[in-house]
């Protein structure tokens, strides 16, 4: 059986000599779902702000405006798809009967 590599101390001290093949991230506590969604949305807002800033600083060229429009539209489509997936998941988790298909047979 192969020996596992020694891991660095959690205290951050460099007193001992340790052999580590790769760094492993170990969070102190897991991130809540709400905070993860918030960070994701804030990241999108930062990119949007960067795009608007680019348009303002570099001028209103057609390519920049088209690019910014495409990004915003893709985020809207993604957001709608994400909301739909969340709604379906919550309905499934609650055990609610699925909605009948539109125009289905009686």
Tell me what the structure shows.
Residues 1-20 are annotated as: Disordered. Keywords: Membrane, Transmembrane, Transmembrane helix. Residues 1-10 have a biased composition (Basic and acidic residues). The chain crosses the membrane at residues 36-57, 63-88. There is one protein chain. The chain has 106 residues and is mostly helical. It has a domain at 33-94. The chain has two helices and no strands. Helix 1 runs antiparallel to helix 2 (62-94). It is flat and about 55 Å long. It starts with 32 loop residues before the first helix and ends in a 12-residue tail after the last helix. The model has no long low-confidence stretch (mean pLDDT 76).
The pLDDT mean sits at 76
Q: Helical content, roughly?
A: 55-70%
Largest sheet: none
Residue stretches low in confidence (pLDDT < 50, at least 5 long) are none
Terminal-residue CA separation = 64 Å
Number of strands: 0
Shape summary: flat
Structural class by secondary-structure content: mainly alpha
**Rg of Cα set:** 24 Å
Strand content: under 5%
The total of helices stands at: 2
The arrangement of helices and strands along the chain is: HH
